[in-house]
Amino acid sequence: MAEPETEQVVEADQRAVLSGVRIGPFVAGERITLTDAKNRRHSIMLADGGKFHTTKGAVDHDELIGRPEGVVVVSVGGTSYLAMRPLLNEYTVTMPRGAQVIYPKDAAQIAMTADIFPGARVVEAGAGSGALTCTLLRAVGPTGRVTSYERREDFAQQARLNVEKFFGAPHPAWDLRVGDLVEQLSDDLIDRVVLDMLAPWECVEALAAVLVPGGVLCCYVATTTQLARTVETLRVHGGFTEPEAGETLIRAWQAVGLAVRPRHDMVGHTGFLVTARRLAPGVTAPPRKRRPAPGAYGEDYTGPR
Questions:
Q1: Claim: this prediction has a pTM higher than 0.85
Q2: Where does residue 269 rank: exposed (0-12), middle (13-18), buried (19+ CB within 10 A)?
Q3: Rounded-to-integer distance, Cα 32 and Cα 42, Å
Q4: Which residues of 101-125 are buried (b: 16+ CB within 10 A; e: fewer)?
Q5: Distance of CA 259 to the CA centre of its chain
Q6: Bridge partners for 57 per DSSP
Q7: How many whole angstroms separate alpha carbon 12 and alpha carbon 5?
Q8: Which tens digit of pLDDT belongs to each residue from 30-56?
Q9: Does the N terminus or the C terminus of the chain have fewer Cβ atoms within 10 A?
Q10: Is 211 in contact with 193 (CB distance < 8 Å)?
Q11: How far apart are the first and last CA of the chain?
């Protein structure tokens, strides 16, 4: 019969693998964040005998290993640092990267707009550095499935390292495939699709064949030309609801006494989201009444009609 303490440790380990959330003392091999008095954050990987070097002196990793989260350590030069495990939004913007990551504000919007739910079968392309993958895996839970496609082997390797470092082990719900989405897509039905790629419109036809009726297609694109091509392709296809496009802006505020004002370090435009839902086979949605601007489909327009 297992001891209660052993059962608690196993339960905590299982939770960490599924959520990336750890509790208890710091251990060697995990990434933590040190924050100084000016709110400057430093991401470090704890190692036995390791040191974090700063202009104000070093901090010994051994002073942190075995201590609880939320402690303060002092460098040799007298600078204090608050030690915490990074939250998912902090981890994704500080982790090593090959491709540019999807920022937390967009990842959160994708999770809500695409309606990622526990048990969902999700296809993601491309995997990039694995930032969005972490959000998707946490959302689908142990009963879901995230299949990520990445064309570049080096990006795929970096994504795997980042995801496994965050969860502490290979996630049981994740399948990472190196190659082209259209060429490798199986016939298995899926509930949700998230595309972060140069030309998502090239995948619409293939995905429409496996996306369940009512399923959501969400495309993350960086430019207005990509947005326009994606929207028009979905309209011409006819098997999706009217696409909706938008972007998310977050403006942080400073609040110190009477000095209450927006901060100067706002993260502005990062990308656009285009979402649409799959219709039942053979069904055409009622035409959306819209009045294009004069010249919208003029001589210079070369997209789908």
A1: yes
A2: exposed
A3: 8
A4: bbbbbbbbbbbebbbbeeebbbbbb
A5: 34
A6: 54
A7: 11
A8: 999 999 999 899 999 999 999 999 888
A9: N
A10: yes
A11: 68
